[in-house]
Every structure is written in C-alpha cells, then in structure tokens.
Design brief:
Length: 388
C-alpha cells in the first residue's frame, strides 16, 4: 500500500520528521512491524541489527617487556533495545561500516592494557582469562555506542623472533616428547607382549592339537591292534575248544579202553580164579570122601554117597559162575552147551573120585587123564561162551 513501510527482521526502521522519538530522540524506532509513513513529510532510514565482525591484530608488550602480536576476532551487533538502537543510529546510521572499525580500535586498546599487566606464561596458558577480562572492561564503553559483544576469540599470540614462547615450550616439548617416547615404548612393549602372548597361545594351541592328535593316533592304534588280535584270539579260542573236545574224546576213549581191559583181562582172570577155586573145593571134597571111605571100607556106601554128593558138586560149580559176567554168543544152543558142560564137569569129577579109590598108581594116571579131559571140555566151549 502506498506509504506503508516494513523493516526486515534484522533491521530497525528509523522514521525522522514529525514527532520525536523516545527520550527525545530525533527519530522514532520501529522493529518487527510496519508503519504508515507520509511521503515528503517523513523520512525513513534502516539500521542493521545483524551480527558484525571485527578483527584485531595488535602488537602488545607484556609485564616482562616482551612484545607480542595478538590476533583476535570480535563478534558484535547493535543492541535490540530502543536505547541501543538510538545510540547506534546517531553514530553509525550514515556509515554503518564504521561500527567494525571503531569496535576494533576499542578492543585493541583494551588488549594492550590487559596484556601489559600479564606475563607471557599467563597469556599463553590462560587465553580465556584474557578474553574475559577484555570483554568485561569494554562492555561499558561498547554500551555507550549502542553495541554489545557476543564473543571475543584470541586467534594467535606471536613473539616474533625473540623465541621466548618457543623456549618456554621447550620443557613442555621435552616432557611431551618424553611422554611420547614412554608411550611409544609402552606401546612397543604392549605390542611385543601381545605378540608373545599370541605366540604362547599359538604354542599352547599347537600343543593341545598335538596332544589331541596323539590321543587320536593312540586310540586308532589300539583299535587296530585290537582288530589285529581279534583274528588270532578267535583262532586260539577255536583251537582251545578243539583241544578241549579232543581231550574229552581222549578221556572217553581211555574210559572205554579201561572198560575193554576190564572185560578182556580182569573178568577172564576172575573167571579162571573161580574155576580154580571150584576145582580146589572139589579136591577137598574128594579127599574128605576118601577119608570117609577108608574109614568104612564100604565101596557101595561110598559110591552111594558120591552119587548123592554129585548134585551138590554141580551146584557148587555153578555157584562159582553166579557172579561171573557170562556172554552167550549163540542163543539157546549156547545156554544148553553151558549146562551140559557143567554136568559133564560134575560127572568127570565123580569118575575121578571113583578111580582115585583104587591103587595109587592107577589113581595118579586117572587123575591126569581126568584133568586133561576136564580142561579140554572147558576149552571146547570157549568159542561160544565168554565168562567175565
């Protein structure tokens, strides 16, 4: 709209003409909103409220008499209040660039003043203290011209060719170098220890691996040895079983042979002994009969007595065979032959007794024949009858 003016956000609109401003100022201050301005009758000017910058490079002398070149940067602006705007407008409205020049000069003076009361060591080691003191001393003066300082930064401090700062830093450099060397030595030692630890770990791992491999190899060897022994052990067990079976067979054969020997040798011997026993009994009976006959001189009675004793003789002969083991080889015929043989033996014994009652010469001759006949009769049946 015609005659309506609006300042920028970082500007203050100054309207001169007409009524005076606050506090008797020659202009009115408008910020943050627009205003109708009558052309011709009113004049409008704008003052920047933006941040400005001033650089300072000043040669200062310390309390020790050492010249230092100090470089600093000041960040400042016009204050937001009406009083500061009025003060800055009255001084810098026609040439606002003079704000940076004037600010630099103001801070250069304060830097020389404050550095003159400090030592190089304090200036170098306490830069923030220096900046704070400069700000505090310049605050009142800056407020009079409507400016406020946001920050002051000391960029560099240089002693030129004197070498004081470098000499001052030599012990620190040496200490730093010493610390760096110590740190480097510690780092090297740590690296060596780490390498040694890694080597020990590697050696331990190799040892454990070798132990495991050895145990595995031993287990494999044991398994192979066990497998290799399995065949011979099985063969030995089989041979042992064969030997046990052969031993048992041999024992059975020995028992069978023993039984065969008993059947072939002992039983026939026992039968022969029984036969001899029967003949001895018969002989004793004959002598008894002879004695009785000699006492009675009765042949008839003797014959009668012999005939009566014949069954008893045969019975005694058969009793001797009662406990013998008789094997009949030809059935019923063999049994008849055994019975006939027993009866024949009894008759032979009876005839022998009768003949022995004659003359002594006749008795001896008859006795030999009868013995031969009895022996022959027994042997005649040996092919079919076995006595054990």
């Amino acid at each position: 709209m015609f005659g309506y003016r609006v300042p920028a956000p970082d500007q203050a609109m100054l309207i001169s003409g007409g009524r005076r401003g606050q506090g008797g100022a020659p202009f009115r201050v408008v910020t943050g909103h627009g205003k109708f301005v009558l052309p011709v009758f009113r004049k409008v000017r704008f003052l920047t409220l933006a941040m400005c910058e001033a650089e300072v490079a000043e040669k200062c002398v310390t309390r020790q008499g050492i010249a230092l070149t100090v470089r600093a940067v000041i960040a400042f602006k016009v204050g937001n209040d009406t009083e500061s705007i009025v003060n800055a407008g009255q001084r810098f409205l026609s040439d606002q660039d003079q704000m940076s020049v004037l600010t630099g000069r103001i801070f250069a003076g304060h830097l020389r003043s404050i550095i003159g009361s400090m030592t190089v060591e304090e200036i170098v080691t306490e830069r923030q203290k220096l900046a704070t003191e400069v700000l505090e001393t310049s605050k009142t003066e800056m407020a009079k011209i409507g400016l406020i300082v946001d920050s002051l930064q000391i960029q560099s401090i240089d002693d030129g060719d004197t070498g004081y700062i470098e000499a001052m830093s030599a012990p620190h450099k040496a200490a730093i170098q010493r610390q760096a060397q110590i740190a480097q030595a510690k780092a090297t030692q740590a690296s060596v220890e780490a390498q040694q630890e890694a080597a020990r770990n590697q050696a331990e791992y190799s040892r454990q691996t070798a132990v495991v491999q050895a145990e595995y190899s031993a287990e494999v060897d044991r398994a192979q040895a066990h497998a290799a022994q399995a065949g011979p052990l099985a063969q030995a067990n089989a041979q042992r079983e064969v030997l046990a079976a052969q031993t048992e067979l041999a024992e059975r054969r020995a028992q069978l042979r023993q039984q065969e020997l008993v059947a072939e040798v002992v039983k026939p011997a026992e039968a022969e002994a029984e036969r001899i026993k029967l003949l001895a009994l018969a002989e004793a009976e004959r002598m008894k009969i002879q004695a009785e006959a000699a006492a009675s001189y009765d042949r008839v009675a003797l014959d009668r007595m012999l005939i009566d004793q014949l069954p008893q003789i045969v019975k005694e002969a058969s009793a001797g065979l009662a406990n013998a083991n008789v094997n009949i080889l030809n059935g019923t015929d063999g049994l008849g032959e055994v019975a006939a043989g027993l009866v024949g033996q009894g008759l032979t014994i009876l005839d022998s007794v009768r003949r022995n009652l004659g003359s002594p010469d006749d008795r001896n001759t008859k006795t030999d024949k009868n013995d031969a006949a009895a022996s022959g009769g027994t042997q005649g049946h040996s092919g079919r009858v076995e006595i054990e």
